[in-house]
């Protein structure tokens, strides 16, 4: 992430048009043209993939993995508030 910090900062300060194409060239000369929408989706997917791998490692060690989904994080940090539905009177 540190290697891509400047690229992400430059990307996120602009209008996030999901169809805008961004050209990326890495330090070895590899080039990739991809839309902002695809780049953001890949960043989210990449994190999800690593969290899944960690949960698999915990499970294989016999340890119940913690809740790591975004909703659980939001609830734990007060960024999500859930209000249960009130039953309708009959």
Question: Gist?
Answer:
By secondary structure, this protein is mainly α.
Sum up the structure in keywords:
90 residues; mainly alpha; 2 strands; 46% helix
Helix/strand layout:
Elements: H1 5-12, E1 21-25, E2 31-35, H2 36-60, H3 70-77
Antiparallel strand pairs: 1-2
What does this structure look like?
With 90 residues, the protein is mainly alpha-helical. Helices cover 46% and strands 11% of the residues. The chain contains three helices and two strands. The chain has helices spanning 5-12, 36-60, 70-77, and strands at residues 21-25, 31-35. A two-stranded antiparallel ribbon has the order 1-2. A hairpin with a 5-residue loop joins strand 1 and strand 2. The longest helix is centred in the middle third of the chain and has 25 residues, at 36-60. The protein is flat and about 65 Å long. The chain starts with a helix and ends in a 13-residue tail after the last helix.
Give the averaged pLDDT, no decimals. Answer: 89
H/E series, N to C?
HEEHH
Give the helix tally.
Answer: 3
The general outline is flat
> Which strand-content bin applies to the residues?
5-15%
Helix content: 40-55%
What is Rg?
A: 19 Å
What does the main sheet amount to? 2 strands, antiparallel
Tell me the span between the first and last alpha carbons: 55 Å
The order of strands across the largest sheet is: 1-2
Structural class category: mainly alpha
Q: Unreliable runs, pLDDT <50, ≥5 residues?
A: none
Number of strands: 2
């Amino acid at each position: 992430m540190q290697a891509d910090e400047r690229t992400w900062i430059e990307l996120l300060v602009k209008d996030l048009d999901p169809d805008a194409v961004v050209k990326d060239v890495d330090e070895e000369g590899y080039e990739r043209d991809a839309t902002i929408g695809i780049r953001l989706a890949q960043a989210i997917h990449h994190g999800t993939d690593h969290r899944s791998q960690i949960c698999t490692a915990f499970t294989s060690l016999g340890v119940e993995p913690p809740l790591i989904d975004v909703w659980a994080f939001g609830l734990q940090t007060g960024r999500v508030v859930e209000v249960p539905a009130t039953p309708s009177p009959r």
